[in-house]
Write a structure and sequence with these properties.
The chain has 178 residues and is α/β, with parallel strands linked by helices. 20% of the residues lie in helices and 29% in strands. The protein is built from four helices and eleven strands. The radius of gyration is 16 Å and the shape is globular.
């Protein structure tokens, strides 16, 4: 079965961006030749999920393109009706319906990449199979949280964490099955 994998970075205090959507703090962890497992995770995926606000931030950083559309089917969670583009779908239906549909199709894993509202909607329905969270060695003090709360308790199983010489700790959890 296709897995839904949250693959994301956050500060030690749980933020994925500043209040102004600034991501410059991520450069703390930049090191030539180190991608923190990005290549491996994305090689095993063919579908990308992102929230509309995060999508807008990505477009502002990349000059108006979503790089994942080059080789993946992408879904932007939005409240608006917008026409699809090449490998880019705008989705405003129930999240569980989309995940059920994607899982019923042959394919690779499904990677999601923020923001907090989209992550919460997936967590509310217990749709995330794996959490891979790279904790960047900084404390932002304020900003946009990864985990917004307001969900029922979810139990996960800890997998081996990875420690990098940049100070990044990559946490890895799998959904606890009963």
């Amino acid at each position: 079965m296709r897995k839904v994998i949250l693959y994301i970075s956050m500060s030690i205090d749980g933020f994925i961006a500043t209040k102004q959507d600034n991501l410059d703090w991520l450069s703390i962890a930049e090191k030539e030749g180190e991608d923190y497992g990005y290549t491996e995770v994305y090689a095993e995926a063919d579908t990308y999920l992102v929230g509309r606000k995060t999508y807008d931030v990505i477009l502002s950083l990349t000059g108006g393109t979503l790089p994942q559309t080059e080789n993946m089917n992408c879904y932007v969670f939005t409240r608006e009706d917008r026409p699809a583009e090449k490998n880019l779908n705008f989705y405003n239906g129930p999240v569980e319906q989309l995940i059920k549909e994607l899982r019923s199709q042959k394919g690779k894993n499904i990677v999601c990449d923020g923001g907090g509202e989209m992550v919460r909607s997936l967590m509310e329905k217990d749709l995330i199979d794996e959490y891979i969270i790279s904790v960047i060695p900084t404390i932002l003090g304020d900003g946009k949280r990864l985990f917004l709360g307001g969900i029922n308790q979810l139990n996960v199983k800890a997998m081996p964490s990875k420690y990098y010489d940049t100070g990044v700790v990559q946490l890895h959890y799998k959904r606890q099955t009963t």
